[in-house]
Amino acid sequence: MNSNQSVMTNEQTETSNYRVPLIILTSLFFMWGFITSLNDILIPHLKAVFDLNYFQAMAVNSAFFGAYAIVSYPAGNLVKKIGYQSGIVGGLAIASAGCIVFAFAADIHQYSVFLLALFILASGITILQVAANPFVTKLGPSSTASSRLTLTQAFNSLGTTLAPSFGAILILSVAVLSSNELASMSDSELAAFRLEQAQAVKLPYFLLAAVLASLAVIFSFVKLPKIDQNATSSESSVDSIWRHKHLVFGVGAIFVYVGAEVAIGSFLVNFFAEPNIAGMLESEAAHYVTYYWGGAMVGRFIGAAVMMKIAANKVLAFNGTAACLAVLVAVFSSGSTAMIAILSVGLFNSIMFPTVFSLAINKLGSLAGQGSGMLCVAIVGGALIPPLQGAIADQVGIQLALLLPALCYLYIVFYGLKGHRVAS
Questions:
Q1: 3-state secondary structure of 23
Q2: Separation CA 200–CA 166 (nearest Å)
Q3: 192-205: burial string, b at 16+ Cβ within 10 Å, e else
Q4: Are 244 and 359 in contact (CB under 8 A)?
Q5: How many angstroms separate the CA atoms of 131 and 28, rounded?
Q6: How many other C-beta atoms are found inside a 10 Å radius of the C-beta of residue 395?
Q7: Cα(270)–Cα(247) distance, rounded to whole angstroms?
Q8: Euclidean distance between the first and final Cα of the chain, in Å?
Q9: Is the Cα dihedral 362, 223, 29, 384 positive or negative?
Q10: Looking at residue 370, what is its pLDDT?
């Protein structure tokens, strides 16, 4: 047997050994996708419950994605000390606790308590991301890391696809009264109505808490491969993470990608309710959000296959260009054309996160864990860009505010064409 055949046999054996762990880890990607996508339903719901403007409603995203900025770096250090599997168990336990706090927040009926609960929940999800993303890239040959992470992210998108309909049925199905009907209520009647609306979140979040707690127990006992985080190191112990330009540019790419994706998703229900777009009721519009996240799911399955043949950075640049053009069509058109255009952005978003992530940690060696933490910090784009878009929407309307995500996609194109290159 020659050396090439030996390498191929070793890679095939390695892939076979890692297949079951990859399947198990996929459940995590599904769960955090499901939970994240529920924010798109919570925003219009809490906006109505607490009579918020768009900027105030976007505080949901600030609380949730702000956790990535605060928790990611210490989470990276924690995972380095206790290992990937223990990090996953801890993340699941914290996320479950956050769901319980969120459900009880309905009884307190304070917007700030809901935001605190979301922060706790997101802190658990952050630890999961810091542990699971680099774990997946290490479960097999580095040459197929982008494809492998894209495939697992496809199940993340399955979660984001199912969550809007789940939320529409259990959360947005609560009767919504007109402004005239609300104005005719006494203060006590209005307070009672607001409290009833807030109670709609209790059942779904208690259910999520139970599922997350069950997964924590499962991951406590399941046997996952032990991977030495320093085993692939080819870097000096004094090497600086900031010397790796492709990682630094990748941090920017994750920031704008998450910000754009979340900003668009968070505004879809209100966008479809606009008279010149579709004039839908919120409960009806919520079901259409499924197509946005469903497009991301389909695109990831396709992308996982395409990137086995075409360089990941080229696919990234193409999708960034297509997403930018689709947003511009949504901004400068109306009716079904605008609806289809904005929903199609989900398809083009599909491969962006896993592709940027795998390109950014490429050849980092022992710095991969630290690089993963930095990339997860960049998810804070989901906390900062949506409120900025909300402030713009309060001034010029939802449609023109979408120009902000269009600019974000232009940076994605830059990263795919040039920013991803590893310095020699």
A1: helix
A2: 12
A3: ebbeebbebbbebb
A4: no
A5: 11
A6: 11
A7: 36
A8: 34
A9: negative
A10: 77
pTM for this entry? 0.73
pLDDT in tens, 154-200: 788 788 888 888 877 777 655 454 455 555 666 676 666 666 666 77
* pLDDT attached to residue 235: 45
Let me know: does 170 contact 202? Beta carbons within 8 Å. Answer: no
Region 302-313: what's the mean pLDDT?
Answer: 87
Token pair recorded at residue 185: 């209520």
DSSP state of 420: T
Question: Cα dist. 217→46, 98, 213 in Å?
Answer: 32, 17, 6
Both tokens assigned to 89: 């168990």
Q: Picking from 127-136, 236-245, 281-290, 329-338, which range would have the lowest pLDDT averaged per residue?
A: 236-245
CA atoms of 59 and 55, how far apart (whole Å): 7
String of DSSP letters for 376-410: HHGGGHHHHHHHHHHHHHHHH-HHHHTHHHHHHHH
Count of CB atoms situated within 10 Å of the CB of 275: 7
**b/e code 352-376 from CB counts within 10 Å (16+ = b):** bbbbbbbbbbbebbbbbbbbbbbbb
Q: What backbone torsions phi and psi does residue 229 show, to the nearest 5 degrees? A: -70, -15
Question: pLDDT band at residue 233, thresholds of 50, 70 and 90?
Answer: very low
| Distant-in-sequence, close-in-space partners of 114: CB < 8 Å, separation ≥ 6 | 46, 60, 102, 105
- In the three-class reduction of DSSP (H, G, I as helix; E, B as strand; rest coil), residue 132 is classed as helix
